[in-house]
Amino acid sequence: VHLQASGGGLVQAGGFLRLSCAASGSIFRINAIGWYRQAPGKQRELVARITSGISTNYADSVKGRFTIFRDGAKNTVYLQMNSLKPEDTAVYYCNAERLATMAVYWGQGTQVTVSS
């Protein structure tokens, strides 16, 4: 499974960005795709996750501001980020989970920088 993340950039506080995670390769029975982020000096944390059953969950810090959704026809999962804050600054990664084999796949990161 290959995951291609894109859409990061520099934005002012209060602005918005949309990240994309395009999946290719052997994507059969991928059970969930999630977005994680890692700020300098901090551990990687879950931001949002969507399952194949379209259930979603979010970190408390982004609830009401971020939305994760998918386009099945494009094998792409998006993270719409609104009302961005400087504390959202991080490298964002997408990952995919395949429960049948306990496999986890990671894409490369995309930098999001929010200026105050």
Rg over CA atoms, rounded to whole Å, is: 14 Å
Sheet with most strands? 7 strands, mixed
Protein structure class:
mainly beta
Element-level helix/strand string: EEEEEEEEEEE
How many individual β-strands?
11
State the share of residues found in helices, binned by percent: under 10%
Q: Classify the beta-strand content into a percent band.
A: over 45%
Task: State the helix count.
Answer: 0
Distance between the termini: 37 Å
Report the uncertain regions: none
What does this structure look like?
Strand 7 and strand 8 (76-81) form a beta hairpin. The radius of gyration is 14 Å and the shape is globular. The protein has no helices and eleven strands. It is mainly beta. The termini are far apart.
